[in-house]
């Protein structure tokens, strides 16, 4: 196979031909679907009249091609695996093509495929070229008319973008529906669905008075899982009007749930297609965290209608233009709808573990990458989550009102266009009069900046001097880094824990201010400081950086109790716990007995025993830093020490504070009818954190609580929390009956079986790997379904670190086996799954060698471009 080649941002050329209107006709059949395309094409101004027309087409079988009704002769065009080239074309013309596809054998789940018999499409980023010959790039925008023809019995429902304009019956038990989408759009937003579906329907009136019909289409057995998403959709529509002034623009908005789907969901114009796991929910089958995730994803896809669809990306290097902004918008929505501090804590936790890990590994790339081999590999935490942090920094720099003006300007100025990150940032600069030239480096420079802190108090001068320095480590292809503009929000706490008045250069800055760290090193001198303060830095996590600051336990505990910033209170607690865990890890490494520090135990006790003002935050405060987070802090990751220390700390806390946790657990019981609302979720989280500590003690009374909670069967959140505690007990006889009962009860529901898989394979004992192999043969598992793969393999690899990183290398071998199989079936998922094998840099030598061995094994296979790109980066 020829070595795949990279595409560069700097090589961008505008399209030579534009498509003005696209007419598609699908005659659906599992093994031979006919696709006829009629494209109205016009040569772009400035293009030479002899410029060939080159259309993307990924392994398509061409049956017919004609220009203005005239079939082409063999010498007039060329077809390859990747393109259709027509050597000479008129200035304006009609192109007709016909191809034949086999959706039933499409296991990549890109283009047109089948899921449980249902036909559906996934076109972003470059799936449309698997459907028909087309200039498959986001800066070609056309109106679409789509006719879908299908078997009446197998596919009674035929959907596409826009509004239905015509329908009718055809011979041989077939029928058709024609859809028209009046909004010009890139091909990646095209969608079609055909199947035996049922719907729930609702109505929404926009602020401008448009009556919109809302539909959620699912397989019949899932109708009772649609209500929550419908409510979330209506909330999203209202919120986008109120917060961003954005109104919906069609008379119909549809969501379809599909079981086989590579990602969470897709924002196709007027016809969002969702992974069923990202939309279906009810109290019996779905845990609280999932309800919240669904609400966020429904909002995210809906918000794309403006940030992505109306204003789209010029090319795929600009992916963060739509994704970073839209994630920021959905974060803001979720934080308005639920607990704002908890939402921030969760988002930062994800960023600081998974995104920071990406930034320090071989696949590190800027928020706006400058080259790629396979664009599907760039739907990453860096583009999405760091991309959102960059927009958040802009919002904080400008202030909400000005940011909103910039957002309005952006939508007005670029409506109907395909634009670049610069266009967005320029709007923000224009409305604020800020110079954002240096800020743009956040988009082009990869890696996580480290900010180190030095401070000095001068009692005589009554000054407090903060010296902040920044350094971004080298990343592949970027050895030298320029200083970024880092907004450091901060305050100074006095002896009572109150915020001091901040005075710099005789200027008052209130009690919390933003320091602009825009050079390698900068000093900030605070005046009139009566005594040495405790600094609270990076409030609200004001920039996506690693803060290197040495605070004592006393200072951390002080911040944890007094900081006026909720996020920093939580973070101080995490830092304090981290210190404790590091001490335990050192003891473990030296073969000493691990002993939990009294001061730490008492700190936790006071949290458990003091009535909580915010239960949701308390549940977060009581959760120790995850193994992934601890690993991120280490130069050499000691897998075993991290796991043993953390497990020991939890067990000791559970045992020492048993009565306190028991009181908390009992106190937070409730018989209220289940609702996935803020107060109830907070209460359940707190109760289930308490249950986890109780069970960690290993005492039989604790498992009795878990068993009772499991058997009460009140809602999936409580059932699953109890099941997890039982299934993770060292003695398998404690968990086995519950595992069996759960598996039998839910055998008919794949999304619940995913939870059953995940619970078992995250078991922190040595038998976990055998459990994975065993469950891979379970009838409910299928390697072809991405949700099953993520639940069973993904959970094991990412949530069961000690066992994935087993010293005998069996965990790595297992993952490589799976990747090799997936590489043939579904390259996009394969390339995602292989990532943990590329994070070997900071592991011990034995594990590094074992990982490399598996990477070499994968490399020896005939690889898809997706997997090739990732593995090649890792091995270079
Ligand atoms: N654009 C989708 C989103 O962020 C994600 C996606 C990408 C889905 C590629 C499918 C394929 O909402
Ligand atoms: Zn998105």
UniProtKB/TrEMBL annotation:
Instruction: Kindly give the InterPro entries that the UniProt entry links to this protein.
Output: Aminopeptidase_N-like_N, Aminopeptidase_N-like_N_sf, PepN_Ig-like_sf, Peptidase_M1, Peptidase_M1_dom, Peptidase_M1_pepN, Peptidase_M1_pepN_C, Peptidase_M1_pepN_C_sf
Quote the EC number: 3.4.11.2
Kindly report, in one word, the top-level EC class recorded for this enzyme: hydrolase
GO terms, molecular function:
alanyl aminopeptidase activity
Domain (Aminopeptidase N-like N-terminal): give its ranges.
20-189
| Protein source organism | Larsenimonas suaedae
NCBIfam families xref list: pepN_proteo
Q: What does UniProt give as the signal peptide span?
A: none
Its lineage opens with: Bacteria, Pseudomonadati, Pseudomonadota, Gammaproteobacteria, Oceanospirillales
Occurrences of domain Peptidase M1 alanyl aminopeptidase Ig-like fold (ranges): 447-549
Q: Which family does it belong to?
A: Belongs to the peptidase M1 family.
Q: Where is the Peptidase M1 alanyl aminopeptidase C-terminal domain?
A: 554-875
Matching Gene3D superfamilies, A to Z?
2.60.40.1840, 3.30.2010.30, Neutral Protease Domain 2, Peptidase M1, alanyl aminopeptidase, C-terminal domain, tricorn interacting facor f3 domain
All copies of the Peptidase M1 membrane alanine aminopeptidase domain together span 228-442
Protein's UniProt name? Aminopeptidase N
Where on the tree of life does the source sit, at the highest rank?
Bacteria
Sorted alphabetically, the keyword list is:
Aminopeptidase, Hydrolase, Metal-binding, Metalloprotease, Protease, Zinc
Which reaction does this enzyme catalyse, per its entry?
Release of an N-terminal amino acid, Xaa-|-Yaa- from a peptide, amide or arylamide. Xaa is preferably Ala, but may be most amino acids including Pro (slow action). When a terminal hydrophobic residue is followed by a prolyl residue, the two may be released as an intact Xaa-Pro dipeptide
What cofactor(s) does the depicted protein rely on?
Zn(2+)
